[in-house]
Q: What sequence folds into this?
């Protein structure tokens, strides 16, 4: 049963990822991204990370992809891109070569069963699933005790992001005045 | 019978590489941004898998922080993209080359 779920969600994840990379229309790429994000959420559930699966669907599929689609619609950049033209000669073979080399480097420790080279040892944050406590309680306990300072730092980060977005979206003052005079002149 | 963690790690590695190749190949700025999201999700899947394999909640906490950082990154990045497109519509990553050496 677990294998059936894994295979189906893996196919969804990979199909969505390839759709993002190969689709000519940005709207189709955003919708393929939703497919990938849902597949990842299913995999979170399969590994007992229930809270993160819910947050994944709400934040990623609910907020981030909607933001992408909103920008696409707002700017009207939903015209198809010509994928036949290669901007630099040999860029795509080079990119695929880099990708294959990186994939080999990532898969070698896994293939030899040495995945702990990548992960390191277990930290002191507490067990993830041994015991009877639900997942949300464990996550909250770790987040509000041991990881409290990074948690507060993320709130500062969010405030900075909001201020940055406002500053970026604001029109510069002089162009606003020019627009006014241009409108008044005729 | 649960799926061994190595399968999840393999899938995450493939997903990361697909995102990286997409970032290198595509020229539409929005699609490049989506490829960055793919790579972030691959890393999230790796963290959750390690959290299960090591029986350690720390991996899931890191995923929580990655989600927050990704949200902030998308907000600022899309703000920059909107600011660029307001000046020159239909710009690709190749057109924004003012800082090239």
A:
């Amino acid at each position: 049963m677990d294998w059936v779920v894994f295979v189906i969600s893996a196919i969804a994840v990979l199909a969505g990822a390839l759709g993002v990379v190969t689709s000519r229309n940005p709207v189709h790429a955003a919708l393929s991204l939703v497919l990938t994000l849902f597949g990842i959420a299913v995999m979170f559930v399969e590994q007992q990370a229930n809270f993160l699966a819910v947050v994944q669907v709400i934040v990623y599929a609910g907020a981030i992809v909607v933001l992408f689609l909103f920008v696409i619609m707002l700017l009207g950049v939903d015209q198809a891109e010509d994928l036949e033209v290669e901007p630099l000669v040999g860029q795509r073979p080079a990119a695929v070569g880099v990708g294959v080399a990186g994939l080999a480097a990532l898969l070698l420790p896994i293939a030899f069963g040495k995945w702990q080279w990548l992960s390191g040892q277990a930290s002191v944050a507490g067990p993830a699933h041994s015991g009877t406590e639900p997942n949300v309680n464990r996550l909250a306990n770790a987040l509000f005790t041991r990881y409290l300072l990074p948690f507060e730092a993320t709130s500062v980060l969010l405030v900075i992001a909001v201020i940055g977005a406002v500053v970026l979206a604001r029109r510069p003052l002089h162009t606003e005045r020019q627009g006014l005079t241009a409108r008044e002149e005729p | 019978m649960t799926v061994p963690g190595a399968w999840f790690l393999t899938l995450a590695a493939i997903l990361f590489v697909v995102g990286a190749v997409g970032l290198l190949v595509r020229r539409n700025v929005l699609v490049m941004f989506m490829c960055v999201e793919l790579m972030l999700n691959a890393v999230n899947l790796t963290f959750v898998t390690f959290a299960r394999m090591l029986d350690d909640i720390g991996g899931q906490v890191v995923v929580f922080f990655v989600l927050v950082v990704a949200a902030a990154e998308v907000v600022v990045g899309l703000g920059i993209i909107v600011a660029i497109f307001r000046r020159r519509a239909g710009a690709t990553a190749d057109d924004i080359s003012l800082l090239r050496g």
